[in-house]
Amino acid sequence: MATGAPFPFPVQGSGGLPRYEELKEEQELGSPGSAMALRSTVIPMHSSPQVYVVPPRDHLAWSLFTTLYLNFCCLGFMALVFSIKSRDRKVMGDHSGAASYGSTAKSLNVVALVFCILLIVVVIILLVGGVITVTNLNP
After folding, report:
1. How far apart are CA 64 and CA 49, in angstroms?
2. Which family does it belong to (predicted)?
3. Closest listed residue to residue 118, CA positions, set 83, 75, 64, 58
């Protein structure tokens, strides 16, 4: 504001606005001489390194994709069931059971994927070989 107009609000204590009173809680928490300001945060550190166990994989997303798109002979659905069992075991803390169910779900997903890829390859070979023909139904 280059016009030189004074600031529209009066300064505190000049008669326009009442003085700001500190609340009791603000005095206790924020004043430098209070006991709260002298406290510090203590973070306990362990002298021995902690070992973190990697949780077993349940392959739930892969099983869901296999169920929805590549469900060859219901292998995708079976993989989904084993993935859910694996996740339940992992939540309960049974890591060996979760790893077992997870590896079964992975195997079922791989088998369903291989069968679907083979099916697609066979269909393409039959189309190229002329065994299967695509006809135009519109005259």
Report:
1. 38
2. Belongs to the CD225/Dispanin family.
3. 75
Average pLDDT estimate for 67-89: 92
Tokens (6 digits) for 126: 């039959």
Per-residue pLDDT for 103 more than 80?
yes
Q: Does 137 map to a domain?
A: no
pLDDT tens digit sequence for 22-44: 666 555 555 555 555 556 777 77
How many structural domains are present in the chain? 1
Signed CA dihedral, 14, 17, 23, 26: sign only? negative
Residue 71: per-residue pLDDT: 87
Amino acid at 78: M
Would you say residue 16 lies in a domain? no
Quote the CA–CA distance of 119 and 117 in Å, as a whole number. Answer: 5
Alpha carbon 40 to its chain's center: 34
